[in-house]
Write a structure and sequence with these properties.
By secondary structure, this protein is mostly helical. The chain has eleven helices and six strands. It has helices spanning 9-33, 48-54, 64-68, 76-91, 105-115, 117-124, 132-136, 139-144, 261-265, 307-311, 343-346, and strands at 167-168, 177-178, 226-229, 234-237, 247-248, 251-252.
Length: 360
């Protein structure tokens, strides 16, 4: 005699789905608990490359489930995704490598927040936490510049599809709206735009006096620092990003050797002529030539309040308080941009001699 679920056909179908949903967490638990941390995940050949990176990364002490979910995860979508992955395997359609979807990014940002609280708070209070709605339906911007696919290179790196699938209409008249309204509040430049979690490197450890490292031997940046390239759907380590050769007319501008700013230049880039100040470039010239981006801008919040104090005494060579000078540091409307200001901009008749303090 064949077993048959009671009730109508629709009721039996609903009951079958319910049973399946109840079984999914158990299956996930069995799968994740049947081996060492992360080892069970690596059984899937498409996850093996990611596992190999994770096991030698600075996050190797963090179990997979802490970022990606586990047997006790309450999100039904997580378990359904696992079931879908199993079905794909059964059909023989498994991809060579698993890719993070745009819908997964907000959840990953929240998981970054759970450990990196200070960095998250700084990022959230800065300009790089702008949402899709803030970037792509900005009336003032869209009336001046036509949105193109290249906008997604920096704003919306993880978005799947062209700009036409995100914003409508694509013109300078408007009114504009998001074709996918569900992304309106998502961050357009999330943590994963500049950080690769599965990047080879050692954990950051606190050391006492006996474990101090000499200045020249200290790392300049965390190993996770990398640009997410939406064309290749992969991260490019900052050590592989070149610093551009910038020009002021025909003169080559002196550049800071800080490799971290190579990441900044991927979005804050000049036009094809490589002239300082063209496009979105902010390469310092004049009195600040040779100073790197992160000498003045905080890494995550981009705040510049303490930037003058990092290098200057209160007074400049001409005896004026540097924070009260007529520059864009003091007033954004100033005609003297802090990135390009020269002594002669304020002293067209010649730079006065440096004042010496009076002897007591």
């Amino acid at each position: 005699m064949r077993f048959r679920l009671p009730g109508s056909r629709s009721a039996r179908a609903a009951l079958a789905v319910l049973i399946l949903l109840l079984l999914l967490p158990g299956a996930s638990w069995f799968y994740s608990s049947s081996g060492p941390a992360g080892k069970s995940c690596s059984r899937c050949h498409e996850i093996r490359p990611t596992y190999n990176l994770w096991v030698s990364s600075s996050h190797r002490g963090i179990d997979c489930e802490q970022c990606h979910g586990g047997a006790l995860t309450l999100d039904a979508g997580f378990h359904l995704t696992n079931f879908h992955r199993l079905a794909v395997h059964v059909r023989g359609d498994a991809p060579d490598q698993v890719r993070l979807r745009n819908i997964d990014v907000p959840g990953m940002v929240e998981r970054c927040r759970s450990c990196h609280r200070q960095e998250f708070a700084q990022w959230q209070s800065g300009p790089h936490s702008a949402t899709y709605a803030r970037i792509f339906v900005d009336k003032a911007h869209n009336r001046k510049r036509l949105l193109t696919d290249d906008c997604l290179r920096c704003h919306g790196m993880h978005f799947e599809g062209p700009i036409a699938a995100l914003v409508t209409p694509l013109d300078t008249a408007g009114p504009w709206q998001l074709a996918k309204p569900e992304v309106a509040g998502w961050p357009a430049i999330p943590c994963l735009a500049c950080h690769q979690v599965h990047r080879q490197g050692s954990p950051l450890l606190k050391t006492g006096a006996e474990g101090r490292v000499r200045g020249p031997e200290q790392e300049r940046n965390r190993p996770s620092l990398a640009l997410f390239d939406r064309r290749g759907l992969s991260h490019i380590d900052v050590s592989r990003l070149p610093l551009p050769v910038m020009l002021e007319g025909a003169r080559v501008v002196k550049m800071s050797p800080d490799p971290r700013q190579a990441l900044c230049y991927q979005c804050h880039a000049p036009e094809a002529g490589m002239q300082v100040g063209s496009g979105d470039d902010r390469t310092a010239t004049g009195v600040h030539e040779g100073i790197g981006c992160l000498a003045c801008h905080d890494r995550h919040g981009q705040k510049t309040r303490a930037s003058c104090a990092h290098c200057h005494p209160r007074l400049s060579n001409c005896g004026l308080d540097v924070e009260k000078m007529d520059t864009t540091f003091r007033n954004p409307e100033s005609r003297h941009n802090i990135h390009f200001v020269k002594c002669l901009d304020c002293h067209p008749k010649g730079v006065p001699r440096k004042k010496t303090p009076e002897r007591l």
